[in-house]
Write a structure and sequence with these properties.
By secondary structure, the chain is an alpha/beta fold. The chain has helices spanning about 60-70, 150-155, 165, 170-180, 200-210, 225-230, 245-250, 270-275, 300, 320-325, 345-355, 355-360; strands spanning about 10, 20-30, 35-40, 50-60, 85-90, 105, 145, 155, 190-195, 215-220, 235-240, 260-265, 280-285, 305-310, 335-340, 360-365. The longest helix has 11 residues, at about 170-180.
């Protein structure tokens, strides 16, 4: 989907660039306004914290929703980002599973592990955490980041791991799997439609194939991303620009509809398509971040045994996904289309915002300035 906004970006320089107590970070200053600035290097605040030197990070579609003003919990001055790989710089006295110098994957979800929601494995609803990084606390698009409850929010990696591949496991692969594939109850022989060919939609495509559906139909506006989807395993791709996506899906399914419809954009148009193409007994799995209301047509769906699910990613699937990547069963690195240095992060945002023009999927942002 195209985003109808422009970024007002600036770079702020300080006189203390070489001061080890400061770092470079991407800072949010309200809708459509971000800046690369010097910020104080984070420090341990609680005994369960860790400080991680970020070596690879990326930009999420949720960051674009933040830029548009769709996420009011993100306030002026917040360092953005909730994905990344890094090296542990410092640990709190109560961190038991990690040591200084460990290479780690950073999860987007912070969980205490002991509250009533954590005990139900609903880590995104942790009473002491949830989605904090780049939201209510400073995030990963910086040289350093503080990770609360480090024993639960970090995953140990081998030193020679492909950082670009595993960085895709911070957010989009667990999101595509948990919110799309699993909530959609994809099973062998199903016909699956994924509406939205962006990175999360492509992550749902990659993970849906693990459950052997008979067909996967990818629907989107961007021909380049649709061709990428085809190369990733989509059996049919449909450009919905002409407004006829529903007709084409119904033709493909002999007017029966699809067993699973995964909404991976977060706008009224795509949610509407899901409702129009779902078969009786089917599952609609909403993944997209909705900043505005949508219409739910219960007058049409009430008698069709439809299951409609919403979910925040809990990242409970991350250990399994790590095993799948390390075994070669999943190759999320192919989601990375562009690479930048942290000093080029404003250019990275421009590329990601203008994904159709730039043929962008995920961008890998490397932090080499603090390598020691």
């Amino acid at each position: 989907m195209q985003h109808n906004f422009k970024l007002k970006i600036m770079t702020k320089n300080t006189e203390n660039e070489n001061n080890i107590t400061t770092m470079k970070a991407l800072v949010f200053h309200g809708p459509n306004n971000i800046a690369l600035e010097d910020k104080p290097k984070p420090s341990i605040l609680k005994a369960t914290d860790a400080i991680v030197r970020v070596t690879t990070t990326t930009i999420c579609g949720t960051d674009l929703h933040i830029l548009k003003g769709d996420v009011p919990s993100v306030t002026d001055g917040r360092i953005l980002g909730h994905e990344g790989v890094g090296i542990i710089e410092e640990i709190g006295t109560n961190v038991i599973g990690f040591h200084k110098g460990d290479k780690v994957l950073i999860s987007l979800i912070t969980s205490c592990g002991s509250c009533r929601f954590c005990k139900k494995a609903m880590y995104s609803h942790c009473l002491n955490g949830g989605w904090l990084l780049g939201n209510s606390i400073d995030g990963t698009q910086a040289e350093y980041v503080r990770i609360p409850f480090a024993d639960n929010g970090l995953y140990l990696l081998p030193p020679d791991v492909d950082e670009e591949a595993v960085a895709m496991l911070s957010c989009i692969l667990p999101t595509g799997l948990e919110c799309g594939t699993l909530k959609g109850h994809v099973k062998p022989g199903d016909i699956v439609a994924i509406i939205g060919a962006g990175p999360v939609g492509l992550a749902a495509l990659l993970t849906a194939q693990l459950y052997s559906p008979s067909e996967i139909i990818m629907i989107g506006h961007d021909d380049n991303r649709l061709e990428v989807a085809r190369s990733f395993g989509a059996t049919t791709v449909i450009n919905s620009t002409d407004g006829k996506a529903t007709e084409r899906v119904m033709e493909l399914t002999q007017n029966n509809g699809v067993d699973v419809a995964i909404e991976a954009v977060g706008v009224s148009e795509t949610f509407g398509i899901c409702q129009e193409i779902i078969a009786p007994g089917g599952h609609i799995a909403n993944v997209g971040v909705h900043g505005k209301p949508v219409e739910l047509h219960l007058e049409k769906l009430w008698a069709s045994n439809i299951t409609l699910t919403t979910r925040l990613v809990d990242a409970g699937s991350t250990p399994m996904l790590l095993k799948m990547v390390q075994s070669g069963r999943l190759d999320p690195k192919k989601l990375v289309s562009h690479r930048f240095e942290l000093s080029e992060i404003l250019k990275a945002y421009y590329t990601f915002v203008n994904a159709a023009k730039e043929h962008a999927l995920k961008v890998a942002i490397k932090n080499t300035s603090t390598i020691v």
